[in-house]
């Protein structure tokens, strides 16, 4: 998913703050929880965007909902409410997580396959492709795509590795038409 410039800037600022205070892992875990809450409860997002609630009520709701989160995360969420940027929460969380993974030498790989990959297959893909993209390891996000007949597609950042049967047939067709 492509993040907005706004989301990237907030994520970068939060990442630098978390790095200064050695809280990157804590903030990352908290943002994963926040992202999951927003993704799994679309009504929560709608509630925060409601004009019927004041900014103070929205902040209070955030503080109650995420009471176990670090003060950095709570403060950023409150700033987003103040600046009416609460629709950017998930994008900011995603951008921060990518920054944290990059700092650890890890990249996110979206793997599209016809069936769910086993842990062994995911580990093999991680070790095979990590060096090709200049990372130490890959965090595999397996997406089952029923339109794939066979093979895999990997998307790592802005690079796509197409090992699907359809991709191979398309390459063969281009070669034959030359």
From TrEMBL:
Q: Which GO terms describe its molecular function?
A: proton-transporting ATP synthase activity, rotational mechanism
Q: Which UniProt keywords apply?
A: ATP synthesis, Cell membrane, CF(1), Hydrogen ion transport, Ion transport, Membrane, Transport
Q: Do you know which InterPro entries this protein is assigned to?
A: ATP_synth_OSCP/delta_N_sf, ATPase_OSCP/d_CS, ATPase_OSCP/dsu
Q: What's a GO cellular component annotated to this UniProt protein?
A: plasma membrane
Q: How does it sit in the membrane?
A: Peripheral membrane protein
| Stated family | Belongs to the ATPase delta chain family.
Q: What does this gene product do?
A: F(1)F(0) ATP synthase produces ATP from ADP in the presence of a proton or sodium gradient. F-type ATPases consist of two structural domains, F(1) containing the extramembraneous catalytic core and F(0) containing the membrane proton channel, linked together by a central stalk and a peripheral stalk. During catalysis, ATP synthesis in the catalytic domain of F(1) is coupled via a rotary mechanism of the central stalk subunits to proton translocation. This protein is part of the stalk that links CF(0) to CF(1). It either transmits conformational changes from CF(0) to CF(1) or is implicated in proton conduction.
Q: What is this protein called?
A: ATP synthase subunit delta
Gene name, Swiss-Prot/TrEMBL: atpH
């Amino acid at each position: 998913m492509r993040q907005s410039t706004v989301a990237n800037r907030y994520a970068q600022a939060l990442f630098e703050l978390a790095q200064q205070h050695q809280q990157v892992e804590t903030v990352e875990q908290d943002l994963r929880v926040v992202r999951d809450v927003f993704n799994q409860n679309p009504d929560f997002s709608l509630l925060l965007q409601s004009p019927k609630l004041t900014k103070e009520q929205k902040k209070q709701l955030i503080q109650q909902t995420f009471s176990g989160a670090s003060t950095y995360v709570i403060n950023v969420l409150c700033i987003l409410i103040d600046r009416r940027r609460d629709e950017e929460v998930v994008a900011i969380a995603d951008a921060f997580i990518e920054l944290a993974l990059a700092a650890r030498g890890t990249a996110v790989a979206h793997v599209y396959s016809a069936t769910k990959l086993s842990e062994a297959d995911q580990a093999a893909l991680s070790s095979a492709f990590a060096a090709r993209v200049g990372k130490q390891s890959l965090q595999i996000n397996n997406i089952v795509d029923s339109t794939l007949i066979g093979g895999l597609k990997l998307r790592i950042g802005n690079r796509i590795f197409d090992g699907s049967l359809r991709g191979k047939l398309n390459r063969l067709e281009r070669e034959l038409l030359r």
